[in-house]
Amino acid sequence: MAAPDTSRVGSGFFGSASVGVKLDTAQADLRWLRHAFNLAVEAKRLTRDQCPTIKTHDPQNVQTNFPEPEQLAAIIAVLPEYLRGVIAFAVTTAWRIKSMVLPVLWQHVDWKRQLITLPAELSKNKKPVKFPFGPLPELKRLLERQLASGEPVSASHVFHRPDGREIDYKAMRKAWRAACRKAKCPGTWLHDLCRVGAQNLRRAGVSESEVMKLGKTPSMFHRYDIVDEKDLNASVAKLAAALTAAQD
């Protein structure tokens, strides 16, 4: 069997600026191509020597610059009112806005059990995600406000436009960028809120395993540098207090 033509395989082909392919898309294409070659080898349609070496780009771009509480408050203050609840919910739950927050329907909210259950198909790890809102009065009040705002138009989504329609993520991202400029907080992204929420949970004493049960994945902690200098200082301060207590 003749070896396949791999002369154009590589990040330069898939990620070429001339075709306008984003890096994330190129990375995904290359991973799928590598997987396809592995399947071909397992099926004995190709030998390992016939397969090209497919390398993906390592951007080394772990994000560490995220909005402080006062910056986030300034951005929220200039956002359209119907989007403010989305931000508050995302920061509280650490859920991703596009794939987890905006798709939430009222049928996912159990008022009796005071529990939100996100279906497996909306979860990154393909398992149902549960988030109790009973222990958080402010989160419960947020949901009640959303319910009241949606009654006149019978909105099916928890977070919706004033006319009851589903919020378009691209439109929201555009509004967020405009609000960031107006609040003079450049370089702040909607996805930053996932990390802010996860960091808040960790600082509140919630373990990494429990945070993951609430909807996060292990890669979240490694990719977004959840533990920062303030966390490290707090940890060492606990150690110092323990050592001091032992000496007394």
What does this protein structure show overall?
It is built from 11 helices and 3 strands, in the order H-H-H-H-H-E-E-E-H-H-H-H-H-H. The protein is mostly helical and 248 residues long. It has 2 domains: 11-50, no CATH class; 69-231, hpI Integrase, Chain A. The chain has a 3-stranded antiparallel β-sheet, with no helix packed on it. Helix 3 (69-77) crosses helix 7 and helix 4 (81-93) crosses helix 8. Mean pLDDT is 78; it is low at 4-18.
SSE blueprint:
Elements: H1 11-14, H2 23-42, H3 69-77, H4 81-93, H5 97-101, E1 109-110, E2 115-118, E3 129-132, H6 137-150, H7 169-182, H8 192-203, H9 208-213, H10 218-223, H11 229-247
Antiparallel strand pairs: 1-2, 2-3
Helix pairs in contact: 3-7, 4-8
